[in-house]
Design goal:
By secondary structure, the protein is of the alpha/beta class. Among the domains are: about 5-80 and about 150-220, P-loop containing nucleotide triphosphate hydrolases (Rossmann fold); about 225-285, B family DNA polymerase, N domain, alpha/beta motif (Alpha-Beta Plaits, 2-Layer Sandwich), CATH 3.30.70. Helix content is about 35%, strand content about 25%. It has helices at about 45-50, 75-80, 95-105, 115-120, 135-145, 165-180, 190-200, 215-225, 235-245, 265-275, 290-300; strands at about 5-15, 20-30, 35-40, 60-65, 80-85, 155, 185-190, 200-205, 210-215, 230-235, 250, 255-260, 280-285. The strands form 3 sheets. A 6-stranded mixed β-sheet has the order 5-6-7-3-8-9, with helices on both faces. Strands 11-12-10-13 form a 4-stranded antiparallel β-sheet, with helices on one face. A hairpin with a 2-residue loop joins strand 11 and strand 12. The longest helix has 16 residues, at about 165-180.
């Protein structure tokens, strides 16, 4: 019997006035998968997530989470999903332990706050007022609150925006634990590195449409420019490469890029560089990264961050 996807979207559309925020989007997310939506500001990521959470109604198309229509069956669905909204905030004075007990009462569930805090690596701040928590600690509390109802699907809308690298990596560890527990995670992020680290598959959105979808490797292979050799050298080396080989080489600003079709091209290029007698240094071989593909698909103006280590 075929497994029903945890999330299934087909031909989804949502318009705000003259702006088509989501324009015929289709995708599915398997149970236990981490699926990431990438895209510049205004691409339609948050609108898509809010429709799946039952916070906004679609104009047309279908959207199902755990087999339920989020808008028509929101009350039932909200018992089975966890949500961390963009820019998570809470009351200033409750402690994490108090916040979890409060949420447990709202859901009618008996919870063990200390166990939940251990799961999100926040047990060392269980009695600190929310206003005194660091940015990373606040996000981890948001994750703990989203787990109070033991959800099957967790929606994380830009959970690490504005956090320092150490805090972001702490949140990443929590996401990995959610996957290990078999939960489905829907993640939107402005950090390409975050998607590469956490997601089983990614989808890149532009103007409300998905323009690429698959594993990082699949997207890089399909939309990238292939492998290329980059070497620092002058016009004399570039001229020699063009005259002595059939390889496509481009140069400028003291750098030469040689496009490789297969491994044998790399050997030809290396031999020609050595035989040229020209000065050269810093030879590297690389292929397009997810960042390169992203910029190619959405344009150089796409607002997304690489992340700072």
């Amino acid at each position: 019997m075929a497994q029903v996807p945890a999330i299934e979207v087909s031909g989804l559309k949502k318009k705000y006035g003259d702006i088509q925020a989501v324009d015929g989007t289709s995708f599915s997310v398997d149970e236990g998968e981490v699926f990431s939506l990438l895209g510049p500001n205004g691409a339609g990521k948050t609108t898509t997530i809010e429709i799946l959470e039952g916070l906004r109604n679609k104009d047309s198309g279908t959207a199902k989470v755990l087999g339920l229509d989020p808008w028509e069956s929101g009350y039932e669905l909200h018992k089975r999903i966890g949500v961390i909204p963009q820019g998570f905030k809470f009351l200033d004075y409750p402690t994490p332990r108090e916040a979890l007990s409060y949420y447990g009462a709202l859901f009618g569930r008996k919870v063990d706050p200390d166990e939940l805090l251990r799961r999100v690596i926040l047990d060392d701040a269980s009695n600190v007022w929310f206003q005194n928590l660091s940015g990373g600690q606040k996000q981890k509390l948001g994750m703990a609150l989203s787990l109070v109802n033991d959800p099957q699907v967790v929606f994380l809308d830009e959970p690490t925006t504005g956090l320092d690298p150490q805090a972001r990596r702490a949140v990443w560890e929590v996401v990995r634990k959610l996957k290990d527990e078999g939960r489905t995670v829907m993640l939107t992020t402005h950090y390409l590195e975050e998607a590469e680290e956490l997601a089983d598959r990614v989808a890149i959105m532009k103007h409300g449409k998905i323009v690429a979808m698959g594993t990082t490797a699949e997207i890089e292979s399909k939309f990238g420019s292939g492998q290329r050799m980059v070497v620092k050298g002058g016009d004399d080396l570039l001229k020699y490469l063009r005259e002595s080989t059939r390889l496509h080489a481009e140069g400028g600003a003291g750098s030469i890029t040689i496009f490789l079709r297969d491994k044998s091209d790399a050997m030809v290029a290396l031999g020609a560089i050595e035989e040229s007698g020209a000065a050269w240094e810093d030879l590297t071989v690389r292929r397009d990264s997810l960042e390169d593909v992203f910029l190619k698909l959405v344009g150089e103006g796409g607002s997304i961050e690489k992340g700072v280590e």
